[in-house]
Amino acid sequence: MDLPRTPSFRLDGKRALVTGASSGIGLGAAVALAEVGAHVVCAARGMDRLTEAVAAMTKASMSAEALPLDVASFEECRAACAGAPFDVVVNAAGLARHSAALETRPEDYDAVMGVNLRGAYFLSTEAARAMLAAGQGGSIIHISSQMAHVGGIDRAVYCASKHGLEGMIKSMAIEWGSAGIRINSICPTFIRTPLTEQTFDDPDKVKWIEDKIKLGRVGEVEDIMGAVVYLAGDASAMVTGTSLLVDGGWTAE
Ligand SMILES: NC(=O)c1ccc[n+]([C@@H]2O[C@H](COP(=O)([O-])OP(=O)(O)OC[C@H]3O[C@@H](n4cnc5c(N)ncnc54)[C@H](OP(=O)(O)O)[C@@H]3O)[C@@H](O)[C@H]2O)c1
């Protein structure tokens, strides 16, 4: 009898672009993809931390290079994706400016939307444009949030950006599916990174988070790395237009 074959999780010979690769979840994604064999172009705005990250990856025998990129710039997204298409794009560039909805300033709204949604939008179109031109499929993965599925106090703008991202992904998946381009999101719960440092400094917030996460602990970057590898490669070949919640059960109730 012929047994079914487990798809490979390896990405040997593949090229990946990871934005936000100098810190937190993006750095975790870059390492995860490199460890399964991809060459990873690591992108962020600040070159100091990025260079340090790439040096550490190279020292650990991973194949990586640094690319300065502001995803809020359409021109920079276009330039980053020009030329040979990436097989995998992980967009982990993102920011948060939390405040009560009534206190949100237009400049905070524009900054969050400009990176989390507009940046994600045009990074996706430019990555897909190169894949389409080459007649090649690929996997585009956005680091969204559990806050794309629920609301959160002081998080109206952040939630709007992440809910918008989910709608964008569904629509792009419909448009690009026939070309073999998959686009999905990973929706983490609270993960310990520089972005959430302030939240974790507040014992009341930590208690709120630990009560809401059914697994009873906050997330670590390592909790996201397996999801990145899964969505990047053949194991998820039939998965597009959806989100993978890595939320410890936050949204289960
Ligand atoms: N940590 C969490 O609990 C959590 C939970 C759910 C979702 N997320 C999402 O996960 C993503 C990553 O968050 P994180 O916690 O890993 O944050 P982080 O540690 O603050 O890292 C953010 C990364 O994005 C880069 N970045 C920021 N703005 C950018 C831009 N305009 N263009 C290119 N790169 C940019 C930063 O480098 P430069 O500043 O040098 O550019 C840095 O490398 C975000 O989208 C966030 O919303 C995080």
From TrEMBL:
SUPFAM superfamilies: NAD(P)-binding Rossmann-fold domains
PROSITE patterns tied to this protein: ADH_SHORT
Pfam family, one: adh_short_C2
Highest taxon, organism lineage: Bacteria
UniProt cross-references to Gene3D superfamilies, sorted A to Z: NAD(P)-binding Rossmann-like Domain (3.40.50.720)
InterPro entries, A to Z: NAD(P)-bd_dom_sf (IPR036291), Sc_DH/Rdtase_CS (IPR020904), SDR_fam (IPR002347)
GO molecular function, one term: oxidoreductase activity, acting on the CH-OH group of donors, NAD or NADP as acceptor
Name this polypeptide is given: 3-oxoacyl-ACP reductase
